[in-house]
Amino acid sequence: MLSTYAPALIFIAIGATIGIVFGLLNKFLGPPPRANSHKADPYESGMPSEIKQGFRFGISFYMIAILFLLFDIEVLFLYPIAVELRAFGTFALLETITFIVLLFVGFGYVWRRGALTWK
Amino acid sequence: MEVIRQKATDSEEFRSKQLRARDMLRGDLDDKDLDEFVQERVLTTTLEKASDWARGNSFFPLTFGLACCAIEMMTVAASRLDIARFGYEAFRASPRQADLLVLSGRISIKMAPVIRRIYDQMLEPKYVIAMGACSSSMGVFNNYAIVPADKFMPVDVHVPGCPPRPEALMHGILELRSMVHGDPTLGWRERYEAEGTEEIYPLAPADATGVNVFGAGGTEGTNA
Amino acid sequence: MPDAATLERLVGALKASDSESVIDTVESPGRVAIEVKPDSIVGSLEVMRKAGYEFLASVHGVDYYPNEPRLGVDYELLSREACDRVALTLRVSTEDPHLPSVTPAWPCANNQEREAYDMFGLIFDGHPDLRRILMPEDYEGHPQRRDFPIGGEPVLFTHNEHNVPRWFE
Amino acid sequence: MSTVDPAARELSAYRKMEESVTISETTEFEGDRELLTLNLGPHHPATHGVLRLLVTLDGEVIRRLQPIFGYLHTGIEKTAEQKSYWKAIPVVERMDYVSYYFNAMAYCGAVEALLEVEIPKRAQYLRVIHLELNRIMSHLVFLGTSALDLGAISVWWYCFRERETLLDLFEMSSGQRMHTRYFQIGGVIEDIPEGWIEQVRKFCAIMPERADTYGDLLNKNEIFLQRQRDVCPLPAEKLRELGVTGPLLRAAGDPWDLRKAMPYSSYEDFDFKIPVGTKGDNYDRFQVRLAEVKESIKIIVQALDNLPDGPTITEDRKIALPPRHELATSMEALIHHFKLVTEGMRVPAGEAYYAIEGARGELGCFVRSDGSSKPARVHMRDPSLVNMQAAPAATEGWLIADMLATVAMFDPIIGGVDR
Hints:
Chain B is mainly alpha-helical and 224 residues long. Chain B has helices spanning 11-26, 31-41, 47-56, 68-77, 112-121, 132-137, 166-180, 188-191; strands spanning 100-104, 127-131, 157-159.
C-alpha cells in the first residue's frame, strides 16, 4: 500500500527540505545581523507605530476574505476534471456545469444579501 | 572573480575560436577538444565573491523621494535612461524588501529621525546613496533646517549635482556596484599612491594669522 | 492697485465701521497697504469683503527688525469683479504678539496663520488648532525672526580646518 | 554613530506624542465601531513626496484626515534674506521643484514691480513660452504619478518620455534641465539659440496627439473611470471659501484664471480658452489639466509666431549686467558690472505682491525691500499649502483608495508647501 503513495510522499519530502534549506540558507550566506533596537519595530511609513499584534479590525475584512476563500477553492476542484475531461466523457461535463451553476446560485445569494458591498 | 579573458592576439586566432565555438554548438567537438573548451570557461570563485556579484547586480532601490532629486530619480527609471538595463528597476515601497536607499533630496531636521528609522528597518546588506548636493552637504541651503546625511547615517556613495543628471545617478549606482563587487574605483590618491600629501596643518598654531573672511566662524552664519 | 477714488471710499468705509481702526496707508509701486489696528482686523476684513474684496489670497508675517513694533502681518485681498488687489497690514510688538485670528471667518487662512505662528511667534487668539506646522513641535525659537541665527555650518577654510580635524576621511 | 537607547533618554512631549501615534491615549469609538488612527506617513509611495497624512479609519472608511507638513521644510525664505536680489533666484526656484519657472517668474515680477523696470517685449514672450512649456511638463509629471497611483504604469512611461523632450528644450535654451535660472530680474539671461524655435515647433506639432493618446489610454479604462468619476466632489463655493485656486477650482466650474483675469507678462496678446469642469469630481480635475496642456500648446505656437526682435533684458545697467564685449571698451560698463557682481542692485524701499497663475493655482510672491541690496522679506504664497486645506473636506467618508486618488488629484508639491 505504501508503494502506491511513494511518489506523493517523496514529493512532499523534497518540498519540505527545499523549503527548510532556503529558509536557513540566509543564516550562513547573509552578513551577520547587526542587532539595533529599531529593526524589529513594525514599519508604519517611517513613524513609530503603536499597532500591537492583537489589534482588532472590522468585520467587513473577514467577510470579504471568507467569500474569496470559498469561491477560490472551487477552482481547485475543476483542475482534475479539466485534465482528463475527454476520458470522463460528456457525463463529467454535465456534472461540472451543474456544479458551476450551483456556485452561481450561491454567488447570486451573497450578492443580493449585500455581503460584497463595503460597509 | 578570477576571470582571465585572454585578449585575442590576432584575427586568425579569433577566427579559429569562433569556428570551435560553432563546432561545439553543433556537437562536432570530440571529448578532448570539448574538455579543453569547457576548461577555459569554468569560473572559479569563492562563495562570498559569488554572493557579492549577485548582490551587486540586483539592487532593489526603495521608492524614497524627498525633493527635486526624486523627479530625476524617477527619470532614471523612466524610458530614456532606463535603469532596467542594469537590473535595478524593481523599486520596492517597503524597507523590508529594499536594499538600496537613495536619499534623493534635502533632509530637513523633522525628517531626519524618520530616515534613520527607515534605514534601521531595512534588512542587512543595505547600501545608501546620498543623491544631490542637499543630502550630501546641505547644498544650496546652509541653514537651520537642513541636515547632511553623513551626520546621522553611514552613506556609501555621494552623487554631486543639484539635481544631478540621471546619468550621474546611474554612474553613482554603478560605482556602488563596483564597490559591492569588491574592486572599488580608486580615488586619485589611492590610484597614484599619494596619501599623506594633504596640505593640512595638523593643529593650527595659536597665532593662526589666516585672515578670517567669514567672521567669528561660529555656528551662526555671520554674513547676515 | 485701487486708484485714489476707490482707496478713499475703502478707507471711509473702514473708518465708518470702526472709527480709529485705520492708522495709515502705505503706498509702494503697484500695491496699496492699509494699516489697521490689530484688534480691529476681523471687522476691517468684513468691511473689505462687503466692498467686493472677497478672496483672501495670502496671510503672512513680516519682521520689520530695526523699527518697532517689530512683527507685522499682511492680508492680501483680491476682488474678482474689479480684478484688483489691496492689502491690509497690522503691526504687533514681540513682547505681546497677540492678535485675533481670522480663521473662523476666513477658513482659507488656517494653514497660513499656523505658519505665521510657527515662523514668527505671532499668537492668533481664537485659531482652532494653533500648532507648529513646519518645524518639529518641540522646537524652541521662531526661525524667521531677523535675530534668529541662520545656523548651518561654517564653510571650511584653511584657518578653521583644525576645528574639524581629518575632515577628508 | 551611537544610537542612544530611546527608553533611556528623557522624551519631550512631542517625542512622546510621536512615539505613540494615536494622539488620544484611548482608542476612539464611534458608536460601537472602533476607530484606528494610522500614519500614511512621510515615507509612502502614494503621498507624492514627504506628506504625512494622519488618518482615522473606521475599517476602510475615513473618518478624519489630518495632513501634517514640515518634513521638507528647507528655510528657503530665510536663506533668500541672506542673499542679494539676483542671487536669491536659484534658492527661490527650488521651492516648487516641478514648476520652477513659475517661482522665478513670481519672484522676478515682484522685484521688477518694486524697481518699476520695463521688460522688453521679446523677454516677455520668451518668458511666456518657457512658462507654458513648464506648465505642460508639470501637468505631465502630475499625470504620470497619479496614473501610477491608480495602477496605470504605462501612462507614467509615456509622460516621462514627453518630459524628456521638454527637458531637452530647457537644456538647449538655458543649459540646465531643472532649476534653470533662465529668468533674470529685468528679462531673460540670454537669447535663445538658433534652431530652438524649430525644436519647439516640432514638439508643439506632436504634443496634441500625444495628449490625446494619454486621454484614450485612460478615458476608456473602466477601472480608471470607476475610481475617478463622482469621487470626492467639492462644490465651487466650498472651494472658494477654503481659498482653493487653480485647476481644482476650475474643475468645479469656476473659470478663474489669472492669465485671463489679470494678464501679466503680455498674456493679453494670446487668445486661448480656459478649460472648466462641471461637477468638480476627480474625473473633472484630471480632464481640466489634460485640456490645459492643449491650451498651453496654442499659447506657445502663437508666441512663437509673433516673437518680436529686440533686447532680451532691460537696458537699465543698474539692474542688468552689461554684455561682455562692452566690458573691454567702456568704463561705465565695467563699473556697472563690478557693482552688480559684488554687491548687487539696490532696490528702493517698499513692498510688492506679484501673483501669477502657477500650475497648481495662484502663486504669489511678496517681496519687502528695505533699500539695501538684500531682500528684507521674501514670502511665496504657495497654492498647494492652501489647496491641501480642502483635502480633509473632500475625503471624509470615502474609502482609503478614493482618498489616495484624491490626494493625487490635488497634486501637492511638498517642496512648495514646506518652503
